Structures are given as C-alpha cells and as structure tokens.
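pinned: reference chain
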Amino acid sequence: MAEPALINRFFLLFIGFYRAAISPLLPGRCRFYPSCSAYAKEAFEILPFPVALAKSTYRILRCNPFNEGYFDPVIPEAKDRTSEQENP
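pinned: its structure tokens
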C-alpha cells in the first residue's frame, strides 16, 4: 500500500486526536459500522484526498437521529481498466 499524501496524513492525525481526546467525552455511539471515525481513517489511508474528504463528509452527515445506520465499509476506487487491458 502506498504512503498517504501529506494532506491525508494531516487528517489522519486529526482523526487520531478526535478518537483519543474528544470521542470518549461524547455520549452515545456511531450508528454505523465501522464507526464514522474508523471509516474516515480508512478512507484517508487508501483514497485520494478529495475522494476521502467527500466520502467522509457524506458519511458524517448521514450519522443523525433520522438514520438507523447499517454496515457501510469504505469502497476503494476502481482502477482504470483501460490501462490494465493495454498492459496486462
């Protein structure tokens, strides 16, 4: 796996801080599995920054009392199939 970009690493540090210092102070639990912070962490580890930011933001916006929650894993971006076909 490639090393996350610098901006992704910044967000990974922020997520780590949130999970260690802020999350324990909040009541309740995330409605999804994996938790929203675990989802964001994985997204920033494996996806390009704009995609990780969009998916994480959308996930956090769905975590509200009107959404029951469910299993929602991070889906990696599909590879460019044309380059795979040209270079088997």
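why pinned: Residues 29 and 35 are 8 Å apart (CA to CA). Residues 80-84 have pLDDT under 50 and may be disordered.
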